[in-house]
Amino acid sequence: MLAAKAKRVILVDTYPQCNLTGMALKKEESEDDKARIETIYNTHSNIKTDLASAFESQPRAIEAVDCISIEGQEGLFLLPGYVGFGEYEVTLGIAQELSGSI
User: Fold this and answer.
1) Could you read off the pLDDT tens digit of each residue along the chain, which spans 102 residues?
2) CB 29, CB 100: distance < 8 Å
3) CA-CA distance, 32 to 100, in Å (whole number)?
4) Cβ(47)–Cβ(14) under 8 Å?
5) H or E segment at 38?
6) Which residue, among 100, 78, 66, has the nearest Cα to 9 in the 3D structure?
């Protein structure tokens, strides 16, 4: 609804099964659609690769993310999920617990 009202909206898929990513990209079962989705995963940013420096204590700044425009809705963008994003759950849980005790 916000994108339909000329607002810029970013959908961020944080779920390891990437259901939002599949739905937003209209994942179908044809070979052409599978190839298109595979190309997106191999050439665009995703949540795991874009946040890796923060989770892996790499000494570099987090940079802007290149989101994917959603077809058929101007102003709606997607930061795709990644199946391996669940690897960070323990790290995130510890960080949340530590920040609550400070």
Assistant:
1) 999 999 999 999 988 888 898 888 876 667 776 777 777 766 667 887 787 777 777 777 777 888 888 988 999 999 988 877 777 778 777 777 777 665
2) no
3) 48
4) yes
5) helix 31-43
6) 78
